[in-house]
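Look at a sample.

——
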Amino acid sequence: MQILIKPIVTEKLNEQGEKLNCFGFVVNKNANKIQIKKAVEEMYNVTVERVNTMNYAGKVKSRYTKSGVQVGKTAAYKKAIVTLVEGDKIDFYSNI
């Protein structure tokens, strides 16, 4: 089971990464905090201090077109905010 799906790279989380040493990931819906902690430590060779998780439900979206109203739903996902120990960093841009 793949735990970490992708990192979240936004302005808000970049600022938190610099100031608070927190980094965000989209994770598997069935993963718990212990599994997320192990996966981040193995993948990035850092020490995790704390893991906070949030479940996001998909929003219902509708739009008006020539053929009528189209209704859909955005994807539901689980987000994890990982706080690292002082001195550790994750660089998402090192492979670019």
Q: What stands out?
A: The two ends are 27 Å apart (CA to CA). The CA atoms of residues 18 and 28 lie 25 Å apart. The first helix runs from residue 11 to 19.
